[in-house]
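Explain this fold:

***
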Amino acid sequence: MVKTVVESKTKTAVLGFDQPFCVIGERINPTGRKKLAAELEAGDYSTVEKDALAQVMAGANILDINAGVVYNSNPNPNETEPPLMTALINLVQGLTDCPFVSTVRSQKPWKQVCKRPRAVHC
């Protein structure tokens, strides 16, 4: 039986057919959320903080962090995503020890985050 293991420094979530149901919080995603996209472009991460904490409080076992937003000031997500993703990962890891997953266009954020002591297993 195939299992997927997602870990933070202190927590482990195991996904598999023979495992308990796993809740993945997916609110940290600017896709379709114009207000959040505008906040992120302005450097305002208050909604991300609220969403991360609210999802963990509601029982999320894993947080999905997404930063694939197209800024009005720079429509190239290959330029905007790496620094934003790094900031979001750092923020979320500072708020909670909940494991996280993400899809990124560039490996740069992962390489930066994996160097930190509190990083996920990379």
Observations:
- The mean pLDDT is 86.
- The longest helix spans residues 77-95.
- Strands lie at 3-7, 12-16, 24-28, 62-65, 100-101.
